[in-house]
Amino acid sequence: GKIWRYDCYDIRKFKPGEIDTFLDIGANVGSFSLQAKVLNPTAKVISLEPCKETFETLLINMKQWKNTGIECYNICLGDGTLMYFDKRRHDGMSKFLTTEETHKWPKKYGYTIESKTLKKIFDDHKINREKPYIIKMDCEGGERFMRQEEFLEESLDIIRGSVQTMMEVHVDPEFGGSKDQWNSFFDKLKNTHELRLARWEDKENSDKRYIYAPVSEMPYEKGKMQIELIDKKWIGPWPGKGK
């Protein structure tokens, strides 16, 4: 898939031993978690997937690889409350909503799942914030909880401490956040991290991978955008070696 072939989360540039922990939020069937472990065998890899059916497939995949040491948990990024499963045709596009959000969009929802804030995830899983860590988020709008006022500063502090954070950002005033809200969020990180937007270098060439280009702000009013925030200390000839 695109994770292995195109390195769409841009982690091949890191050498084995450089990263202590990878946190995979929205792991799906585990492709990114496995890629991170293969490229960085000594790293701690934590894999979070909220969809129960997909989580079962994730566990099966981990068993097939045997003894990876990847930690897998059936939870989602949220506000700490139980979240309601909003099933979509493709499991990878399913969402999890708060009780308040289910009242806003009434329908018959599925099961509930435990949610944790970003800080709670770091605390509960004892992620060492003094050592290099990378965060990947692809959680169909779950990233919106980091912008909530009560979680904003602690989430920003965690991202500021990351070597790299990759996110699929859902820009939608109704669900996910507006362009202005996200640009305000990223603006608070500009002193420590460079914002990059993913694009294809050449869609006609199947060997081309995702290219991350620096941007000053999110360019689009609505839609899904894959972004990367990289610590500026890791950019350049040393110590980042061109990252």
Automatic annotation (TrEMBL):
Signal peptide: none annotated. This is Methyltransferase FkbM domain-containing protein. It holds the Pfam family Methyltransf_21. Residues 24-186 form the Methyltransferase FkbM domain.
